[in-house]
Amino acid sequence: MKRIDVLVIGGSAAGIVAAITAKSNYPKKNVLLIRKEKQVLVPCGIPYIFGSLNGVEKNLIPDAVLSKAGVDLIVGEAVEINQGEKTCLIQDGTTIRFEKLVLATGSTPSVPKWLKGAGLDNVFMIPKDKEYISEVLNKVMGLKKIITVGAGFIGVEISDELNKQGKDVTLVEILPNILGLAFDKEVAAMAEVLLQERGVHLKTSSGVKEITGKDKVSGILLDNSETIEADAVILAMGYTPNIILAEKSGLNITGKGFIAVDEYMRTENPDIFAVGDCAEKRDFITRKHSGIMLASTACAEARVAGMNLYKLSTLKTLSGTIAIFSTAIGDTGFGAAGLTEEVAKKEGFDVVTGSFEGVDRHPGTLPETHKQLIKLIVARESGVVLGGEVVGGLSVGELTNLIGIIIQNRMSVTSILTAQIGTHPLLTAPPTAYPLIKAAEVVARNL
Question: Do 169 and 146 touch, CB atoms closer than 8 A?
């Protein structure tokens, strides 16, 4: 029997960060990570395998990140956890005894049971599986007409990448707008215009009734009886947490199908933690259960778990998921953090919004200057920022992160108005018209 201080099950972003953080905070403890995959994909880079990266080999996380940190690695599948004996059985028969366990078992692409034709040839999903994605890439590159079902971030990004490869791509979404869960309508509409200008066909407010074909896919049937021909269909309809191992061990599973955890990422067993897509999440603002699955969120959870394994700190907790998103269509970036205006109002918040459009360099005549739009969603009573949305150049990712920090620290509009910032002509918007501050000024006037 192998004895380990800290055992981490799962080798994607959450597992890697949990293991490295554990070793960093408790250097005298031995840390072992077990994963099923021989090689691990960069999760957020998967859509770009179909275009910009042109293959899986440029989208791999090297095992050196673990070995350099002093974390041991086993490639194998954990099949059973015994809470009482604090052991884990590996498929090859090896038993590992642990002091602390971190479950980072991730998620699997969702396919609705009612969707007829999902098992036909050339119907694909997007798991974090190198071999499967390689096979999908090889097949899709030889085909012409592609339909993507689901216009979340993965669906939009894959559609755009395949379009760049000269494919005839149609993106189907049941909601009125693409990226409709992350952005308010006016921002989502901007993304739609760009995507269509680049050549992707959009079918919004359209549900898929059936995937057609005998043995191989021939197209899809929409719920309005319209048919669209296709050589392949890519399903990007969300993900389901992998909780079977935890459930079999007797750990508590929430009604939403996640492993139940507290703000330290502990399960009801204080020696077992869960992080990433498999772990329960609550929205930072509404406190409701959240289905958000993001690598960035997973890594934050993993850092919290890794720090609290042997010694809890009330300062090192995860007090809810803020939901910080970003993507790019061409050279235009889109970002969002916190609640959209629509969601905030539905939840019952009395909100004030403010928007400002400026530029991301100064003067605006500099080469590669891009327009930059900021929208802030603010609670009327307190002036606290509940959400923000950004459209601009490729720098908007970091600006979106800044809005996330503002939300996490419950900063008010006044805090933004009195904030000290650094600017440079080639790097930022002008100090005289910094869009984030100008949007806060609009909100302050409305308040």
Answer: yes
Number of H helices, E strands in the chain: 11, 24
Q: What CATH number belongs to 325-446? A: 3.50.50.60
Which value, in Å, is the radius of gyration of the alpha carbons in the chain?
A: 23
CA angle 248, 320, 242 (to 5 degrees): 25
Burial of 287 (0-12, 13-18, 19+ CB in 10 A): exposed
**β-strands 168-172, 232-235: how paired?**
unpaired
Provide the CATH number for the domain formed by 111-237 in this structure.
Answer: 3.50.50.60
What are the pLDDT digits (tens) for 301-354?
999 999 999 999 988 999 999 999 999 999 999 999 999 999 999 999 999 999
Which one, of 384, 390, 421, 391, lies nearest residue 406 by Cα?
384
The CA distances from residue 73 to 12, 243, 250, in Å, are 13, 22, 26
Q: What are φ and ψ of residue 336, in 5° steps?
A: -150, 145
Question: The tokens of 434 are what?
Answer: 């910094």
Residue type for 173, please?
E
Contact 133, 49 (CB under 8 A): yes
User: Which amino acid type is present at position 121?
Assistant: D
Nearest alpha-carbon partner for 203 in 185, 221, 182: 221
The CATH superfamily of 2-108+240-308 is FAD/NAD(P)-binding domain (3.50.50.60)
- pLDDT (tens digit per residue) in 225-258: 999 999 999 999 999 999 999 999 999 999 999 9
Nearest to 57 by CA among 76, 39, 75: 39
Q: What is the pTM of this model?
A: 0.95
Question: Are 75 and 35 contacting, i.e. CB atoms less than 8 angstroms apart?
Answer: yes
Kindly give the interhelix angle for 396-408 and 435-446, rounded to the nearest 10 degrees.
40
Any idea where the domains of the chain sit in the sequence? 2-108+240-308, 111-237, 325-446
User: Are both 111-237 and 325-446 of the same fold?
Assistant: yes
Q: How many CB atoms lie within 10 A of CB 68?
A: 10
Distance in angstroms (rounded) separating the CA atoms of residues 157 and 147: 13
